[in-house]
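Researcher: Let's run the pair from yesterday's discussion. Sequence first, then tokens, for each.
Model: Starting with the first of the pair.
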Amino acid sequence: MSTYLQSSEGKFIPATKRPDGTWRKARRVKDGYVPQEEVPLYESKGKQFVAQRQAGVPPGMCPLVAAESKKEREKQERNRARKQDKEAGKQPKAATPGVLVFPPSTCPPPKANQQQPSGSREINSVAQALEDTLKLDGAQEVDPAKQLKKLRKKIREIEQIESRIQAGEQKKLDKDQLDKVKKKAEILRQIKDLEGEPRS
């Protein structure tokens, strides 16, 4: 950062010596000149908007009103936490940084004679019930004509694989192709069932 000297003619940068021993002459500085290193960085409107949003003030809201409402919210949260602590019979204590504290659970405590596997059985039964309802929903939405079309497409693909094997074009099948060929009988049975259903 260069220091300016004042004279009767105005501001100027004094003469300086170069590393090779020669001198730079003094330079006059025009009024209103700002050195490049002191020029503030340009901020676009978008950047200014983001900076304002990060400050926590919604656009168009007075910062004083926002600060006041934030204090009120924090006060209400502290009061609510105190009430919960009193209801639980605990004394209010300072939260340890980095540790999550959950409010007391409303679920009944597990009985002493119950063991862990029963809990996992309950979870499995709930998961099974959800899976069954999802399967039912999915089965109701599928149109038999669309399902028949999909099954016929699978049969065509299986027949193409078989014809390539018979022609000698393909000697080894990958896992997906083997699975498709194995399911041929099941797919044919499903097609027969769908064709036998009366159409509404």
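Model: Moving on to the second of the pair.
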Amino acid sequence: MQTVTFKEGDDLEDVINRDSSSMLIEYFKMNKVDPYARNFLYKEFPEFYRWIKGKKKWQGRKLKGRGQVGRIVYAHPAEGERYFLRVLLNHVRGATSYENLKTVNGKQCANFRESCEKRGLIETDKTLDDCLTESATFQMPYALRRLFATILVFCEVTNIRSLWDNHLEAMSEDYRRSQPN
């Protein structure tokens, strides 16, 4: 999940063995060894710990909670797993690894998106399907088509084809009446 850069002529063994510590990896390590650290979200961490750049490690602050600001790099929903990792870091306290973030109620999820869904942090396709089903009871077909288009533009739909197939009949009712073939 972490980007690794290297030059064309670099020995791959050296690249693999090179120190790949980052603020996030060290955050995970600190949560493993320090019970106090597990109380904080990743963005809250800088209020209580400071990053020592030369040593690439977190160190406890003497004056805790004095308004230091923590930032998490922005990620657009279209970035996929990077975005879902960001969502998890903003909502899960004391994460100890990527695998820990993917674990929900003792069960390992396949990816960060699934973990977000199981934790209730993002909408699932079922929510969108329910929205279209409910709207079909009182909306005209053209309004359903506009709602479908809005969902495609502004929501993260996992299975667009399934959503289309489930609501095609309701969305095309006016066309079928005027164009029977």
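Researcher: Give me one sentence on the second I can quote.
Model: The beta strands are 49-52, 57-60, 103-104, 107-108.
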